[in-house]
Amino acid sequence: MNNLHDCRKAFARTLLELAEADARVVAVVNDSVGSSNLKEFRKKFPDRLINVGIAEQNMVGIGAGLANGGLMPFVCGASCFLTGRALEQVKVDLGYSRSNVKLCGMSSGVAYGELGPTHHSIEDMAWTRAIANMTVIVPADPAETSAALRAAAAHEGPVFLRLSRMPVPDIHPADYEFRIGRAGRLRDGSDVTLIANGVMVCRALEAAALLEKDGIEAGVLNMSTVRPLDTQAIAEAAMTGPIVTVEEHTVVGGLGSAVAEAVVESHPVRMRRLGFPGEFAPTGSPEFLFEHFGLTPEKIRLAALKVVEESARVICAVDPRG
Asked: How many domains are there within the chain?
C-alpha cells in the first residue's frame, strides 16, 4: 500500500480547528501530549490542555467534571489504558451520567505490537459498545477521522473514538460527509459482503479486488459506527449472501459480534468473523500479528471463498436444483 497516512495527524489538525471555532473545546491527557499529537494544541491553547499525568481514572473523572461545567472535553490517551484502567469511570461518569465527553482512544488495536499484550487494545470496542448511551466510532482513514471528530463534537453525549497510529491509505475524499450510525458502502457485490472498520477497511478492499479475479463479486461495507449500528445496511448485505467481518479486535464482543447479533434477528446467513480469536495476542509487529491471525488481504480472500462455498452447499442441500 502506497501513500500511507497517520490518522492522528488528521485528528490533531481537526481538534485545533474545532478549538479555534468553539471556546468550549478542551483537551485532557494522561502524559500523552506527544502520542496524541497535541503539541501544537498545547502551544496554541496552553490554558485549554490539562495533563493529569498517568492517572486515567482521574482523567475521565476530570473530563466529566469539565463537561458538567459546560465545556467540551476531548479526553485523549492510549486506548489500552484509557478504556482498561478507567472503565468504571467511563461507565458511571460518562455513560450513566450522559456526560458530553469525547473519549479519544489513541494507538488502538495492536499498534503497540512489540510492547506485547499489556499494550494491545483488542477489547476496547467490546467494553465501550456494551455501555448504555455510548457512541462508538472506528474511522478508517484521515478523511473519516476528521469528519467523525466533527460529528462527535456536534453530538450531545459521550463518544468513544477508536484511533490507530498505523498508517493507512486514503479511502474517502477530503470532503467526505460522515454520519453517526450510517455504514459506508465502498464496493458493490452480489456474492459476499466484507464488513470492516478501522485499519481493516483498506485490507478488505484489497481482498475484494483479489476475489474479483476468482470470479467472486464482493461488496465492502465500512462499519465505522459500531454503536449505534447500521442494522439496515447489515440486513441488506445479508439478503445478497454470506458475510465476512474483519476487525483489529477480539472476535468476542466486537464488530463481528455486533453484526452477528443483527444478522440473526433480521436475515440469518453464513458468516465468518475474522479478528483475534478470544486470546491474548503474542508480542510482535502489527504486520506479524495480522499474518499470524489471518488479517491480511489474502487470508480475508480465503475466508470469503470458504464461506461462499459453504453457503452454496447449504442452498443445494435445501434445494437440489440450486
From this structure: 2
